[in-house]
Write a structure and sequence with these properties.
Layout (H helix, E strand, L loop, with lengths): L2 H7 L7 E7 L5 H9 L5 E6 L16 E5 L12 H14 L5 E6 L1 H8 L2 H16 L4 E9 L4 H4 L8 E7 L1 H10 L10 H13 L1 H9 L11 E10 L6 E10 L4 E3 L12 E3 L2 E3 L17 H8 L44
Parallel strand pairs: 1-5, 1-6, 2-3, 2-4, 4-5
Antiparallel strand pairs: 6-7, 7-8, 8-9, 10-11
Helix pairs in contact: 3-5
GO molecular function: tRNA binding
Protein name: Elongator complex protein 5
Family: Belongs to the ELP5 family.
């Protein structure tokens, strides 16, 4: 089973904190929509600060969903205190829970702009998460844009020992690695070698945006298929374990899938006789000259005698044969059997 599918379902209640990380090059909103529409057994509270709720969920079919559309609550232009109200709503719902509950905040980047300071935003999210941790069947889902200074803080163990961090990447990033670095996606490339190249490049957000929005890019993130980097941290202390995997997301396959199932990556992971091979371009194509030989040219080439200097003096090598070095001196070589240091006045 794909790991992302089990985390989104969270039937074992082992993932109390889920962070969805989008970027300009690729959005994770399809994952958020899937999460909101595939949890009828859970009670979900959606706090919208950035995207309209109608773009995230079908409001007419949201019996188990409570929506708080606070997009128009701009500090200085609204009399509502969204932070105090959000804490009160979460506290009230979790005080007497009737079923598993999910708290969704979209997005923490807008929340940071409203609060204006990094420390106060961190403390506010810590209070929300403290209320969630009191209940084993509750979880907190945070949607964020990157780069964001708040992300490294909430993904540290000081905020939560358990974490499910979903980072989405455009398929153009893996295509760039396959063509420019000859590093196709796993399982073709060894995982340690692939991560050593993939991680430094993926962390350079502006370089990834250039691949998508540059002159040779596609101009937009792929809304139907994209790559999912999943970081799962569970446990505490010496028992804490961290797992990092790379999976796919496809609308045609109804959500989470294996990376090799993505249609956009199949040119780099083609199958031949049951084995994965790299579909690299032919370097001899589109050249003004011909690098291949015909059958007659190959026969003529095979009949050309090779000009070995000592071909007639060679003997078969046997067990008792002694090695020998053949050397033909050049005209400029100074071959002299006398003392080579005779010219030195010692």
């Amino acid at each position: 089973m794909v790991l992302l599918a089990s985390i989104l379902a969270d039937e074992s209640h082992r993932h109390p904190l889920l962070v969805l990380q989008s970027s300009l090059a690729q959005t994770s909103l399809p994952i958020l929509r899937h999460l909101l529409s595939h949890q009828p057994s859970r009670k979900t509270l959606l706090f919208s600060f950035l995207y309209p709720p109608s773009s995230l969920v079908d409001i007419d079919e949201s019996d188990s969903l409570e929506i708080y559309d606070w997009i128009d609550r701009v500090p200085g232009y609204s009399d509502h205190n969204s932070l105090t109200e959000l804490l009160a709503v979460v506290d009230k719902v979790l005080e007497t829970p009737t079923r598993p509950t999910t708290i969704v905040i979209d997005s923490i980047g807008t929340l940071l702009e409203d609060i204006a300071t990094l420390s106060e935003t961190y403390n506010f999210l810590s209070k929300i998460y403290a209320l969630v941790k009191k209940h084993s069947d509750a979880r907190l889902v945070l949607h964020s844009q990157s780069p964001l200074a708040l992300l490294p803080l909430i993904t540290q163990t000081g905020f939560s020992s358990s974490l499910s961090h979903v980072i989405v990447h455009p398929p153009a990033l893996l295509a760039h690695l396959a063509t420019e670095f000859l590093m196709p996606p796993p399982p073709i490339s060894p995982l340690p070698k692939f991560w050593s190249v993939f991680l430094p490049l993926s962390e350079r957000v502006h370089d990834t945006e250039r691949l998508v929005f540059g002159s040779g890019g596609e101009g937009t993130g792929n809304p139907t298929e994209f790559v999912v980097e999943l970081i799962v941290r569970e446990g505490a202390g010496r028992n804490r374990g961290i797992e990092r995997v790379l999976e796919g997301w496809s609308i045609a396959l109804h959500g989470p899938c294996d990376l090799v199932a993505l249609e956009v990556l199949k040119p780099f992971t083609e199958k031949k006789h049951g084995e994965s091979i790299i579909a690299t371009p032919d370097p001899t194509q589109n050249l003004p000259f011909n690098l291949t030989l015909t059958s007659s040219q190959q026969e003529s080439r095979a009949q050309v005698p090779l000009p070995y200097a000592h071909e007639g003096t060679r003997t078969p090598i046997t067990a008792n044969a002694h090695a020998a070095i053949f050397y033909d001196p050049d005209s400029a070589d100074d071959i002299d059997d006398d003392d080579p240091d005779v010219d030195l006045d010692i």
